[in-house]
Hints:
It catalyses: Hydrolysis of (1->3)-beta-D-glucosidic linkages in (1->3)-beta-D-glucans. The chain is about 35% helix and about 15% strand. It contains 14 helices and 15 strands. The protein is α/β, with parallel strands linked by helices. A nine-stranded parallel β-sheet has the order 5-4-3-2-1-13-12-9-6. Strands 7-8 form a two-stranded antiparallel sheet. α6 links the parallel β4 and β5.
Amino acid sequence: MASQLLSFSLLFLLLLSRSRNIVGVGINYGTLGNNLPSPKKVAQLLQSTLINKVKIYDTNPEILEAFSNTGIDIIVAVENYHVSNISKDTSAADEWLANRVVPFIPATSVVGIMVGNEYLTTEKLDPEALVQAMQNLHGVLVSRGLERKIKVSTPHSMAVLASSFPPSSSTFATDLVPTMTSILKFLVDTGAPFMVNAYPYFAYKENSDSVDLQYALLGNATGVHDPKGYIYTNMLDAQIDAIRSAIVNLGFGNGSIKITVSESGWPSKGVAGDMAANPENAKTYNTRLIERAQSSKGTPMKLKDNIEVFVFSLFNENKKTGDASERNFGIFNGDGSKVYEVDLSCQFCSNDGAAATAGSFGKFSSGGGGGGAVRGPSVWCVAKPHSDDKVLQAVLDFCCGPGGVDCREIDKSGDCFKPDKVHAHASYAMNAYYQMHGRNYWNCDFKGTGLVTFGDPSYGTCQYSQQ
Length: 467
């Protein structure tokens, strides 16, 4: 029986890890608005889309709770003003992690911590504090056994470069070289990505007389030639390769550092006279950006190096400072309606879920049906490893009693009786209940003991049902 339980556990872990290889797109979820939908509604919407990673700018507990058991990975952030405190010692970093992140895992899949945002190009901030804060947080993750799951990095603006063209000659700004060297060494040692916020929109806006709009909009432009023979048909690839060259020029050229575009987008509205910021251009850019993220293609300097992309952003945020464009990068308005049509459907979505993304957040109320379903059809609900047996027994009694689940398969004569463990039996019953009620994420909560997985937990002759 012990060997059967081990086999089941290994199979479950294998399938769970396999489920994380879904090709999707990341998105930035900012909250500087007074008219935004609740995090729970946001989580419900995104479960029915190709979005599989969400990056936030703090550790908002309401957001972290809302994304529990959704199958969507979350990247959290240490705000710029808090970096100095975390840099002081590991106890400060441990306190931050213990209070801000640990209470929500593993139900919420936190996979990254951003230390600051464009910290090195923000005035009056200590560069050394950034590096030390990253090291302290990583050390705390190691002490808690979380370093393989949660990676630590920091997003940079393109202003960290001395120049970005031609891409092959790009280097980091001279005054940042010592700090960048330390950061790159840290990224190599920990396997974390180099994160850059890259915006062709701003480059075009500042040089509209000399830059082709289609080149900025990721179109198949005539091509810009680099002296080393590379040809760029869009500006984003050139910006990524400029970062790549700067990394190589500091001696980190063996390909061990992955590059992630942590922000990129185009505004649908700008200040008076800004002809580039309009819904049509925003739709064109973000549609092409999403297609690029899903294509798994690299850049002219490294054709096979898949670049992870986080679209900026989910919402127009009416409380952001700056000019009008800063408040109008969202795909959605604050009321949940789309600013313009962008296809966020995916091959993993059910027909109901894919159709729902074309509408607004109004269809995703907590009492709704298919709109809150996790992308499937191949999706299941199981008990979390190490859940308390007493709680699982109560869940099992509910599912097989008032919950209306047919539990004959986990009776002694059933195909799912072995292993005769409450965890295995509860997983079967929880999944049956979850499937019966439309695969809504709240139907796989079970007092925090349920876990949504894209891997089929069936084993041997025991088959877990699907809707």
